[in-house]
Amino acid sequence: MKNRNEKNVDWNKQIIDTINALTLIADEHNIPRDTAADALKDAIIRAYTKEYPETELEVLIDLDNKRLAINKLFKVVETKDEINDYAEITEEYAKKHDSNLKIGDFYKEAVHLSELSKLSLGLHLSQMFKHNVTSQSNKQVYSQWKPRIGEVVYAEVEKVDNKSGVATVNLENTFGFVGRQETIPGEILIPGQKYNFFVKDVKEQTKGWPIILSRADAGLVRYLLTLNIPEIQEKIIEIKDIARIAGFKTKLSVISHQVSVEPAGTIIGPRGARIKTIQEQIHGEHIEVIEYTEDLKRYIVNVCAPAEIVGFAIKEPATPEERREITLVARSDKLALLIGRRGSNVRLISEMLKSNIEINSVEEAHEANLQYQRVDTQSFRQQPFNRAYRKYHNGSDVLNQYNRSYNKRNKSGNSVSNVAITNNSEVIKKTKDSVLQDFKDLNRDDLLKELDATKSIPDNIDNDDNEEGFQE
């Protein structure tokens, strides 16, 4: 009798230890304790019924009082010759233990933990419990992180698998992973260091970590631009389109909602200082900023830059599900720059224009009798400069009042001569330098050199014979 009581005490201790371990696992995985208890119930039932498939089991777990009860359920049936010993019991036998039982009720027979201590059953129980806990934990993570897709997190790299290239990232209450294809080529993630990661996807799965992080997504560059450029934060400058091939180039188009702010130059910064700050955070990747315009024809030219094209043909889609098709025509010596290494530049152009792109040389277009819209790229680039020049060259701007010939009367009745104006050469020089600085922001280096050499503004610069930049 004494040995039996000691054995019971041992099993009771094991139950308490199991309950304590259960609560600890629940806290570590940041899942509700009741959810962990349900996972243990399901694991016990599945493990037991795998050994005894016809048995119906009832599991009761009381976390507060640290109790665990397992019962086999037998259905009370009429006395008959053949019954299922694993699922049924006769009414006569049932009433010997509980006189209140009747046909159709369930008779409960306690299962001792010693039955669960068998090696095969214990192995099934352990595997199924781990599977259930992981599944419940992932469901919890999924509900918490699914709304955060598209955000950027600053987190520490836990470890990197040298064989697969997968990096594990510590997200405090869970983990995320970065596959090899989501890393920047050439960049080595160092365990223990923190990086910015784009939350690309959160999968609803029963094993593994469901949070997929990325350092190769264009969303990361958009976030870094917004973080480092105040004009973007204040919505003065807007990023319209962005495309990226990680490790090669990011191309983006921007537009300014304030006339006095030139978008591309503002983002690049003096001598590229602003854009370099962002490049340093993405392993020195090249970032190309272009001006956005609603005019599709002009936008095509901007997106293709710095490669030059001589024309293009646009085929609009027949249905909303299809993509627009654009054929770009370029001189043979410009095709390599337009296509890019392994077609990388064409891929960026396609993403920016949201169109399928085909490249033809002038000779190929001629042989195919392709009807395409010709474009004077240089004339297109002239447009922003001309608009800026006209802003300074009409009305009462200071540059205009010193350049034009006129005679006015001063208060004493004497005329103001050109000689008097010439004496203000220092003022003129200072004024012109300020205007030239604005022109530099427009990246018109060839025209600026000419202006700086002559210290005057050509009279014919405002003549824009080809305002639209197209030749029929």
Overview features:
single chain; 472 residues; alpha+beta; five-stranded mixed barrel; five-stranded mixed beta sheet; 18 helices; 42% helix; disordered N terminus; disordered C terminus
Topology:
Layout: H1 2-28, H2 33-51, E1 56-62, E2 67-77, E3 88-90, H3 91-97, E4 106-110, H4 113-116, H5 119-145, E5 152-160, E6 167-170, E7 175-178, E8 194-202, E9 211-214, H6 218-228, H7 230-233, E10 237-245, E11 249-256, H8 263-268, H9 273-280, E12 286-291, H10 296-304, E13 311-315, E14 324-330, H11 335-339, H12 344-353, E15 355-361, H13 362-367, E16 373-375, H14 377-393, H15 398-403, H16 418-422, H17 425-441, H18 445-454, E17 470-471
Parallel strand pairs: 2-3, 7-9, 11-12, 14-15
Antiparallel strand pairs: 1-2, 2-4, 5-6, 5-8, 6-7, 8-9, 10-11, 13-14, 13-16, 16-17
Helix pairs in contact: 1-2, 2-5, 6-9, 10-12
Shape verdict: elongated
Kindly report the average pLDDT value: 78
Number of strands: 17
Oligomerization state = single chain
Distance between the termini: 108 Å
List the total number of helices. 18
Main sheet characteristics: 5 strands, mixed, barrel
Over all CA atoms, what is the radius of gyration?
38 Å
User: What order do the strands of the largest sheet run in, or round the barrel if closed?
Assistant: 5-6-7-9-8
Low-confidence parts: 1-9, 381-432, 453-472
The chain-level structural class is: alpha+beta
Share of β-strand residues: 15-25%
Helix content, binned percent: 40-55%
